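User: Please look over both lines:
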Amino acid sequence: MASSSPTKKPSRIQQRNRLIILDAALEVFSKHGFRGATLDQIATQAGLSKPNILYYFDGKEDIHVTLLNQLMDTWLAPLHKIDPTGDPLEEIMRYVSRKLEMSREFPRESRLFANEILQGAPRMAPHLESGLKPLVDEKAAVIQQWIDAGRLAPVDPRHLIFSIWATTQHYADFEAQIEVLMAGTPAHEGAGTYLDALFRRLLVP
């Protein structure tokens, strides 16, 4: 009986080219959204031909889904790290701080995700249901337990999480507007201090 041949591992050049394409696509998608982006734009950004792009990926949607799948792991990591056994206020403040850091470190990824959600999450809906919702349910229950024990001020746990997302990711998603309004001051300057004070005042019992 013939045995199936093992899957051939991609060469270093193939791995490098995939990374180049994904980085180029991230730049294009974060600027133009899925609908506004084209394979020609991605090829130009990557410095590769369009047929070369299609050698590695089946098309624009395949590239977009690959980026979103990679993003979800990174995006959810700080929420996973909220420790039910830790100090409630400090666990929440570490989460706020990390989300703000991510808006500074990964602005393109933040805009990629925001664009997908604004379009109704046509490619991410399964991940929202199977990955994000159970995690938010779990962490909301932890926050509610802290509130019930008198260790945090009464707030709606889910709206608290939404507020953290809104106030931190704003610095990435609306970076161009903030740069104008801050008149040359770095967009994130002072944001950490402000958000720390804001959420501490909200959450201290």
User: Anything to note?
Assistant: The chain has two domains: 11-57, 64-203.
